[in-house]
Amino acid sequence: MKRGFVDLHLHTTASDGTWTPGEVVERAIGLGFSAIGIADHDTANGLDPALQAVGERELEIVPAVELSASEDDIDVHILGYLIDYHSPKFTSVAERLRQARYERGVRMVEKLNELGIGIKMETVKDIAGEASIGRPHVADALLKGDYVKSYDEAFARYLGYHAPAYVPKYRLSPEEAIDLIHSVNGLAVIAHPGLLHRDDLIPKFVELGLDGLEAFHPQHGYYVTNHYIDLAKRYGLLYTGGSDCHGERKGRALIGTVKMPYSCLEALRRRRKELGKGRAGNLAV
Ligand code: AMP
Ligand code: FE
Ligand code: FE
Ligand code: ZN
User: Fold this and answer.
1) What's the gap in Å between 11 CA and the centre of ligand 3?
2) pLDDT in tens, 257-281
């Protein structure tokens, strides 16, 4: 059995992280990780650059994504692990989500303009670069234009759920998200369930084929982590963990604060293999 530790939830500049895939890779190697999951919001564009950055070195890159699904008008984040991210099924949905995020960015800028804030979509686009546009990029544009003093203020005053420039995102249903992940041979895991406060939804997700719960997360305390380990066992699910590091966007970088044993990744691979037998797609591993 391979030793070492893994972090299965990291963001890059492909979504709203502040580090490029290459920078994430260097940090992970520096911290001694054996494997990392790059799980950007709604996109897998960080994966190939990360693999390239690793080159001949030892670090394994776990192909992942963090999809936003909507249920009861709330955002449920669903992690997809070991996905065939080059498959056209995946890339076409990701492209649709990217386009929808762009249009939502335009609408947020319009709303801000109506509120008398003169930011331009060009600025948001410059900040986002190659990334799929999200509220964090708009928040950065507000900071840059001196309309707010902090990133948190941008969310509190303008971009947060109940704030005046909030625009809901086009989201998949939980069923679509889980089916998409399964159709590209991946495993579906509810991200940070402790932040959702909706354990009542879990049985429905289990019926849809959920594979795991993210029990270890920086915002899950000891009690919450154990609660989700227990729930995972009760439902026959796996439990995973990761730091959800966004680089330095939210202050202190979180990489290194969650270290899962390598066996956590092996359990995902085992389950993928078992489920793969019953699925139509071919398994690469
Ligand atoms: P989006 O997917 O575009 O709706 O943006 C969601 C991202 O914005 C989350 O992943 C967080 O990184 C960030 N975010 C959401 N709400 C807040 C908040 N209240 N304060 C700071 N960051 C937030
Ligand atoms: Fe994020
Ligand atoms: Fe999330
Ligand atoms: Zn995340």
Assistant:
1) 10
2) 999 999 999 999 999 999 876 554 4
